[in-house]
Write a structure and sequence with these properties.
Order of helices and strands: EEEEEHEE
Number of strands: 7
Shape: globular
Distance between the termini: 25 Å
Helix content: 10-25%
Strand content: over 45%
Number of helices: 1
Strand order of the largest sheet: 1-2-3-4-5
């Protein structure tokens, strides 16, 4: 079964991702579809303790110098802001 995800990002347009690999309770790997840049994203669930699981979001892309100056910082900021922990055992997910 082919599973895809479509995000609409203010000021940037549409980002269409396809799930290419899954490990239950551990990792989801996504790749861009019909995008101007090749993009791969991993969502990992990392056990830290018995009742504590951390989320790691990794984004990989090859950007030339001009694209890196234009959108590199926005990609880094997007990864940082995608999930935010409020300190009260609640994971806040933003889209």
């Amino acid at each position: 079964m082919l599973i895809t995800v479509l995000f609409i990002i203010a000021g940037a347009g549409r980002l269409h991702l396809r799930i290419v690999e899954r490990e239950p309770n551990k990792t989801i790997k996504l790749e861009s579809v019909d995008a101007p840049i090749d993009l791969t994203m991993w969502i990992q669930l990392v056990p830290a303790d018995t009742y504590d699981t951390r989320l790691r979001l990794t984004l990989r892309t090859e950007l030339n110098f001009i694209m890196r100056k234009m959108i590199g910082g926005k990609l880094q900021e997007g990864c940082r802001e995608a999930c935010r922990y409020d300190g009260n055992d609640t994971l806040l997910i933003y889209n």
